[in-house]
Amino acid sequence: MKQNKIKVILFAAIGAILLLxxxxxxxxxxxxxxxxxxQHNFKEIVxxxxxxxxxxxxxxxxxxxxxxxxAEYELQTEPTCSQKGTGLxxxxxxxxxxxxxxxMEVPHKYRNGVCSNCNYIETTDESFFDxxxxxxxxxxxxxxxxxxxxxxxxxxxxxxxxxxxxxIAESAFEGNKLxxxxxxxxxITTIGYSAFYNCTKLSYIDMxxxxxxxxxxxxxxxxxxxxxxxxxxxxxxxxxxxxxCSYLKNITMPKKLKFIGNGAFANCKMLVxxxxxxxxxxxxxxxxxxxxxxxxxxxxxxxxxxxxACAFYECGRLTxxxxxxxxxxxxxxxxxxxxxLNCSIVFPETLRYLGDEAFAMCRSLEKVTLxxxxxxIGNGIFKNCISLTVPTLPETLEEIGYAAFYKCYKLPESLPxxxxxxxxxxxxxxxxxxxxxxNGTRSEFSRITIESSAFDSVDATVVCTDGEIVLx
Length: 472
Hints:
Helix content: under 10%
Structural class: mainly beta
Number of helices: 2
Distance between the termini: 159 Å
Shape: elongated
């Protein structure tokens, strides 16, 4: 009997233990909200966009995750020596695709030192050059004296002795008659005086991205150079830097450019277009584009303050020019004999000086507007502008210079009372005369100094407040 009780107790204990284990197991499987816990298997695609996708487990739970791309791709563009290729990659979980650059590199294929695919010029051996240590610890470079077998395509080295090369020295390649192409590395900041002067076969320049200064005559006389892309880092184009580049056709000025020097593009007879991308240019020195006979288009930014004497002298095909509202100075003969110039020119109130004969011989010019605060109109400013109607003269005007409106098309409608002097031949032979209003008396008009021939060959009458005066 005692043994039976022991068995009953033992079975009861075992049952209790099993029950507790069952309860523990059941609770361990229960998730929040009464669901059973399990290992989620997110496989079903619910949705995806460019950044993420949403996957669903069979239990109904969803999960958002970033796309995962493997190594496999569909080739989109072949890699070359100058740019990486691209491939179309597909997410391992959804159908989202993305185009990525490929890391593979393709070597250049050099022929005569130039890659046949991208025109990249191979770095030239150091043995052709002299290197000079500069005060800042960098080097300048030039061709060794007496070198006769310099390659016709030169890739300038970036460094020497572990230090960067930053300057192409004065006259470094001057007069080399065989040099056809040059690659300037990004370490170069200055191209020195006459560095490539009179390299008459030079037709290709790969300009570095950090060049700031083009020295005097840097590329002057490079008569085979048709095109050059200046890096946006260039701040100064010094005097005669591209003078007599007779085959140069188009040029885009850099964004950071502040200064165009004396004669910088003088006698570039094939130059048609000058584009100025930035808003930093302040100074265009004298003769900058003198003799650019085919120049048609120039757009100046509203930062230009100074346009020097003869800056656009005899640019005969120039049809349009804007005078920025920032301009303070326009030099003598700045636009002399721009005979096709037929735009309307408005001179800004900032203008302090308009030089003698600044627009003389501009035979197609029809309309100009002078600053309201102008005191003097210089000698011959609009001489022989045979299509021009003399503009409204400012109420502050004191003097009209010699031949200022010589042979212009039509006399002004009025003369200001402030006027003190009219120079010789000022309105000589203006074709259309008529009546000129003067808001003063005949006595006041008679006090104006009118030099000889000021109104010769003009049939006009001045209408004063108290009568008329016939001009002859």
